[in-house]
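Deliverable D4.2, example record:
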Amino acid sequence: MELLFSDIRAALGEVGASLVGGHSEVTSAVTRPVVVGQMLGFSEGGRVLSTAGTRPGDVVLQVGPVPVEGAAVLATEAENLLAGVDPAVIGAAKAATEHPGISIVDAALSAAALGARALHDPTEGGLAAALHEMAAAAGVRLRVDRTQVLWFDPGVALCQALGADPWATLASGALLAAFDPAAARAAAEALHAQGWMVATVAEAEPGSGVVDIDERPIPWPKRDEVSRIFER
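Output generated by the structure prediction step:
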């Protein structure tokens, strides 16, 4: 318990946040540590960036590859199902929460400072779910260029080995940021200069849903692939 709270305080300290309150229990019904938290903050100057700010004509940048967290979870919790996968690939996936990492705080702060109109962090349901959530929140349709998506190769390899769809696999570690097209290129160059992988993956237009450039729908996942793998 002391180690858990020590780690939490250390992580919060990295972003200048404080731990407030807390309640702990020990019960035989829970077989491993479970932590639930909520982040609260104050806006600077009254400006709040939400998932809903994308406008028709905007372009969507993907910052960081996917699926990073999904790769780490699958490599750690489903290693017994990965016979035949290169051990180096499994090792890279296990280390993914640190390299490339799953925090997008710095990328989000930079994108906001560069003029982003909307931000969203893919998590459960992967990149596909995040694109749908972004489109639905803003009331637009997103047209996606599949060839521009940034993939985390070890994660894709594990998905292929397990019969999982990398589009719908837990994707913490990436950020979607919508920009006015006039500002997008400069923003992408600035983020790249900071060390982030960046690509323009979608454009917003009137309508709803998510399609690729050939008008093929990109389905909204009913569930995350990591959950499906563990329940089969």
